[in-house]
Amino acid sequence: MTQTLHIVGGGMAGSEAAWQAAEMGVDVVIHEMRPKVETFAHKTGNLGEMVCSNSFRSDDDEQNAVGLLHWEMRTANGLIMTTADEHRLPAGGALAVDRDPFAETVTAKLKAHPRISVSYEEITYLPQDGHWIFATGPLTSTNLGAAIQAETGAEALAFFDAIAPILYAESIDMSKAWMQSRYDKGETEEERTAYLNCPMDKDQYEAFIDALLTADKTEFHEGETAGYFDGCLPIEVMAERGRETLRFGPMKPVGLTNPHSPENKAYAVVQLRRDNALGTLFNIVGFQTKMKYGAQTEVLRMIPGLENASFARLGGIHRNTFLNSPTLLDNQMRLKSKPHIRFAGQITGVEGYVESAAMGLLAGRLAAAEILGIDLPTVPQDSAMGALIHHITGGAEAKTFQPMNVNFGLFQPVEGLKGGRRGRKDRYKAYTDRAKAAWQDWLSHS
Ligand SMILES: Cc1cc2nc3c(=O)[nH]c(=O)nc-3n(C[C@H](O)[C@H](O)[C@H](O)COP(=O)(O)OP(=O)(O)OC[C@H]3O[C@@H](n4cnc5c(N)ncnc54)[C@H](O)[C@@H]3O)c2cc1C
């Protein structure tokens, strides 16, 4: 059997995967459909094209989880990060780049590598053998999407994300909120207290609806279908359909009793649910939204108990092809039903250029190690890379899985440090110090 690694898609993830595998000594073919087949967002035939903003976000590797991912990728000689550094533009603490020279350089470096060749073609099937990484991104071509769906089942591949905001558990005011499942349903105490509830009286509810109706919203990108399904309507669209719609939908107050004020029946209740096994993150149930980020934080902090909420990620609805990775992929990013195929990048359920490139870096290294017979230890969960791969391949709730940005809520807590906002600086430094050591140790094995 051939030892060549085939990578489908030469975006953020595919470019990084190819570079990593080739640098480890494996021959790579990148199969890229552009410029022959276009997407609505890409504008060139370059590899590593940034489709929208020109920012890789924060470059602070001590206090920010994205900055930490930058650091981990630089330490692994990452193509995307080292090329970004060469084309850096002034942007304060963020890493912004001159996008065209950036992508042109990524393309030139890949084409100049003696172990890499590029084949400009659309791949429309899942091959039966060989070594493959599929990194076809949020705009995976329709034919390939159908082939993936045939393999995984219709339920396991989504074509839109509908992201409800996710916030840090520690930033919720529990003197107003309480834990209880509707009608105390559940066999165990854990199930009976699975939801976190935030109550509203009539005035608070009416003010909240007014704020939703007047908030700034984002439009769909040109070429995106605005036909989201009724099952995941944005909350502001529900509010437009009638002031009471939310009170009979995701904000219904029935079956819940506020222990802080048992005699007062709440007029409406916002429910939150655990978003990860660690219990550090909660999502707001049914609150997918197209409100602009600034408006979102303002409106959501009107919810009693969430006045000081700190958000791990804000909500959104986008055209986005992604797998239900917690059920489909193993911890090496291999498709459980066809382990010669790996997935990488945004299609695995991470979100953003940096996270996608990071998952490409891991997939490239893991595939190359397999081909070369190197036995790599599991990616350490204490590193940013490890926290992310652990989340998408098992740590996240499979039933409600939606794409995720890297954030400190995905990290296992460091024992003995102060919680809350006051202890944040020390806590983040402890996370990043621990992550760097774990990541360097893992790299030393390949
Ligand atoms: C409209 C839009 C705006 C976005 N804005 C931002 C932003 O501002 N910041 C941010 O961080 N993230 C943004 N994202 C998310 C962004 O797409 C990802 O973060 C990142 O580009 C994903 O990397 P990737 O390698 O997984 O996919 P991509 O970079 O999209 O690369 C996938 C590649 O696969 C190719 N391909 C697809 N199907 C096939 C096939 N069948 N055969 C061969 N090749 C194929 C595509 O042509 C593409 O080159 C945006 C996404 C979209 C859709």
UniProtKB/TrEMBL annotation:
GO terms for molecular function: flavin adenine dinucleotide binding; tRNA (uracil(54)-C5)-methyltransferase activity, 5,10-methylenetetrahydrofolate-dependent. Its cofactor is FAD. InterPro entries: FAD/NAD-bd_sf (IPR036188), MnmG-rel (IPR002218), MnmG_N (IPR040131), TrmFO (IPR004417). This is Methylenetetrahydrofolate--tRNA-(uracil-5-)-methyltransferase TrmFO. GO terms for biological process: tRNA methylation; tRNA wobble uridine modification. It comes from Phaeobacter gallaeciensis. It is an enzyme of class 2 (transferase). FAD binds at G9, G10, G11, M12, A13, G14. One of its GO terms (cellular component) is cytosol. It catalyses: uridine(54) in tRNA + (6R)-5,10-methylene-5,6,7,8-tetrahydrofolate + NADPH + H(+) = 5-methyluridine(54) in tRNA + (6S)-5,6,7,8-tetrahydrofolate + NADP(+); uridine(54) in tRNA + (6R)-5,10-methylene-5,6,7,8-tetrahydrofolate + NADH + H(+) = 5-methyluridine(54) in tRNA + (6S)-5,6,7,8-tetrahydrofolate + NAD(+). Its main location: cytoplasm. It comes from the Bacteria. Residues 5-373 form the MnmG N-terminal domain. Its EC number is 2.1.1.74. Belongs to the MnmG family. TrmFO subfamily. Keywords: Cytoplasm, FAD, Flavoprotein, Methyltransferase, NAD, NADP, Transferase, tRNA processing. It is found in: Cytoplasm. Catalyzes the folate-dependent formation of 5-methyl-uridine at position 54 (M-5-U54) in all tRNAs. The keyword tRNA processing applies. It holds the Pfam family GIDA.
